[in-house]
Predict the structure.
Amino acid sequence: MKAKTTHILFDCDNTLVLSEALAFEACAELSNEILSSQGVADRYTGEQLLVDFVGKNFRGMLMDLQERYKFSLPKEELDKYVSMEEDKVIEKLKQKLVPCVGANEVLDKLYNSGKYQFAVVSSSAHRRVMASLVKANQATYFPPDRVFSAATSLDKPTSKPDPAIYLFACEKLGVSPIACVAVEDSKSGATSAVRAGIPMIAYVGSYETPEKRDEMAKTLGNIGAAAVMYDWAEFESCLEQAGCNVSDAPQASSL
């Protein structure tokens, strides 16, 4: 029998906020500049990067590009590009980002219930996540010490699907993975949560077409989703499917 759920761990990009397309739009130009400098003829649009690298941070994407095109960036140069990309993306998010439909209403209801503690567990840099949460009017629910970044919170930066950031978040929160529920929208994020032993709700509402939503529902279900959520209005029923007794959850301490 599953332990009582006390903590909800949310992915950020395209789970709480509609940020992925904006982020990849901002980093496509920089990625193409890097490829050009390495003598690689291929070029990417933001949409192509999104298809190939959704759920990964820019460092993880650059690691994959190096492997794909057989080149190597010195650590100092890699770090420089990661910093440049972060600035470009944050500028774009501050201009155009909006929350996922229905997310703020659910967050507000859960926050006011006092039943759960919240955290964000993301591949994106902490500064970028905080900029997204502020722009989407979600920062009230997630103070900076409840935002965990695979890119910047760990001693050794990584990216989902590595489970390290989820395990790190659980350690810092002082909670067992089985007492948490994760909410994820991507293959890499879902894999990260499942590998960490955390029951996972798959959110597919940010995908643009019914066909893509159904495809991702099947994909994330195969990875190990305990429930699939097409709309944030379904969140409480998905918590029940994930093994959480919604009406009976323990009162958590203040966020």
Summary: The mean pLDDT is 92. The CA atoms of residues 28 and 45 lie 6 Å apart. Residues 75-96 form the longest helix (22 residues). The longest strand covers residues 117-122.
